[in-house]
């Protein structure tokens, strides 16, 4: 079954990344968000020598993973330098640019990734693509201040060099109304099709008034691990 191959791929990628990038001499490690990161924490807990590290979360979810695992919880207020951050991604291109924010945590994920000396992506084989916006078609997640969301959506549709195929306010599943991030903001998903220049698009989106953060991670990752369908793990490195 594909779902078994996907879950196995996530686990393999996460385990290999932890084994190769987290060691006992690290002091502070960033823990990303999402389903693949669950396996990264699982692997950390299997290695007793990693128990003395301080772990900095990127979301409510990863904070709970750290606490429930009995690991030491830290914050970006305490640590302005992180040894390595491990996080998932919704899509990764051949230049290691990534779309993140499918779980609406892109702001904190970017803060923790930028503080890290090394940023490592873990994902299953479905997340690999030659160009962002081709595999992940739900759109670039854009965190927006609530009072500005309509203006931002209008600006995305009319003021950018890119013409979006679709711009939507992300709605909650078990709540009447929009998704609200850990920061109290809304998320707008803008699908542009294949993105030739993610960095340029990121810059234009960030300049829109009301935009809090954009789920385009450009020139940040050192390496990406992909759990393949056949049980192997491939890597893409700078």
Protein model, in words:
It is a single chain. This protein is of the alpha/beta class and 238 residues long. The chain is built from 6 helices and 14 strands. 29% of the residues lie in helices and 25% in strands. Helix 1 (2-21) crosses helix 2 (35-45). The strands form 3 sheets. Strands 3-2-1-4-7-13-14 form a 7-stranded mixed beta sheet, with helices on both faces. Belongs to the ribose 5-phosphate isomerase family. Its EC number is 5.3.1.6. Pathway: Carbohydrate degradation; pentose phosphate pathway; D-ribose 5-phosphate from D-ribulose 5-phosphate (non-oxidative stage): step 1/1. This is Ribose-5-phosphate isomerase.
User: What order do the helices and strands follow?
Assistant: HEHEHEEEEHEEHEEHEEEE
What is the alpha-carbon Rg in Å? Answer: 17 Å
Number of continuous helical runs: 6
The portion of residues assigned to helices is 25-40%
**N- to C-terminal distance:** 33 Å
Give the averaged pLDDT, no decimals.
97
Ranges where pLDDT stays below 50 over 5 or more residues in a row are: none
Proportion of residues in extended strands: 25-35%
Structural category: alpha/beta
3D shape = globular
The biggest beta sheet is recorded as: 7 strands, mixed
Number of strands: 14
Strand line-up of the largest beta sheet:
3-2-1-4-7-13-14
How would the blueprint of this fold be written?
Layout: H1 2-21, E1 28-31, H2 35-45, E2 54-57, H3 60-68, E3 72-73, E4 82-87, E5 91-92, E6 98-99, H4 106-115, E7 116-124, E8 140-144, H5 149-158, E9 166-169, E10 186-191, H6 198-206, E11 211-214, E12 216-217, E13 223-227, E14 233-237
Parallel strand pairs: 1-2, 1-4, 2-3, 4-7, 7-13
Antiparallel strand pairs: 5-6, 6-12, 8-10, 8-11, 9-10, 13-14
Helix pairs in contact: 1-2
Protein name: Ribose-5-phosphate isomerase
Enzyme class: isomerase
Pfam family, one: Rib_5-P_isom_A
């Amino acid at each position: 079954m594909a779902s078994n191959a996907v879950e196995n791929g996530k686990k393999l990628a996460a385990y290999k990344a932890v084994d190769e990038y987290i060691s006992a001499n690290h002091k502070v490690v960033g823990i990303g968000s999402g389903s693949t990161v669950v396996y990264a924490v699982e692997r950390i807990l299997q290695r007793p020598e990693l128990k003395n590290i301080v772990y900095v979360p990127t979301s409510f979810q990863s904070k709970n993973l750290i606490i429930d695992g009995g690991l030491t919880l830290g914050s970006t207020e305490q640590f302005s330098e992180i040894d390595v951050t491990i996080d998932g991604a919704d899509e990764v291109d051949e230049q290691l640019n990534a779309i993140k924010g499918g779980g609406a945590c892109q702001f904190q994920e970017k803060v923790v990734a930028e503080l890290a000396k090394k940023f490592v992506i873990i994902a299953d084989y479905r997340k690999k693509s030659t160009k962002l916006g081709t595999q992940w078609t739900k759109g670039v997640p854009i965190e927006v201040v609530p009072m500005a969301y309509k203006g931002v959506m209008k600006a995305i549709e009319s003021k950018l060099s890119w013409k979006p195929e679709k711009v939507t306010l992300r709605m909650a599943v078990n709540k009447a109304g929009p998704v609200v991030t850990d920061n109290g903001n809304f998320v707008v998903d803008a699908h542009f099709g294949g993105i030739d220049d993610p960095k340029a698009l990121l810059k234009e989106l960030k300049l829109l008034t009301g935009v809090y953060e954009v789920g385009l991670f450009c020139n940040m990752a050192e390496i990406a691990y992909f759990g393949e369908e056949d049980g192997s793990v491939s890597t893409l490195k700078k």
